[in-house]
Amino acid sequence: MGKNILNAVSRARDALATPSGFEEAGKRAAAPTYALQKNLRPYAVNWHDSVKNNSSIQKIINQDPIIGGIIEVESKGGKHILSPKGARGVMQLMPNTYERTLDKQASKKTGKNIYKYGHGMYGKWLDKNQVANPEENVKFGAEYYNKLKQDKNIGNGSDRQALIAYNWGPGNYRKWKSRGGKESQLPLETRNYLAKIEKVMNKKLR
Q: How much is the pTM?
């Protein structure tokens, strides 16, 4: 009688046990849908798939984390890519930053098409299709931002100064600096912009 009870308990325990191979299957099922998502910063979890799952964009952010902060504040990771002011794409680039325009006077003198390019990009530009492409937009925007940061008359190595110029424009930045460069004189939008970037980055920017 005792032996029969022990056998019944053993069979019941075996029936409740996880079948062989199911442990590994459970691990596979719990893996992230997109391989890149496991390295995302918390603020980027809800970004548009075309941004958060783009390996080139994630590489740029890993190398220069502040670019991720700019993307979050500018477009919520590609969710708001059109601005009433004319800014376009993931990093909200303005036409006078990413476009090239024909210099009619210089072209007439030389007999060749001479172009004026966006701020500080030294001959680089984007057309309407490229500026709408997340990867192209971020590559261009990141390079533009870093040129502002490296410019001795703007960022001079300072993220804070480069962000002011990125948000308000290099021309406005230079005028502001010529008047003393006090942050209390910045537009409210730009001061709020700095605060939002710092909140996303969770640190004070210098």
A: 0.78
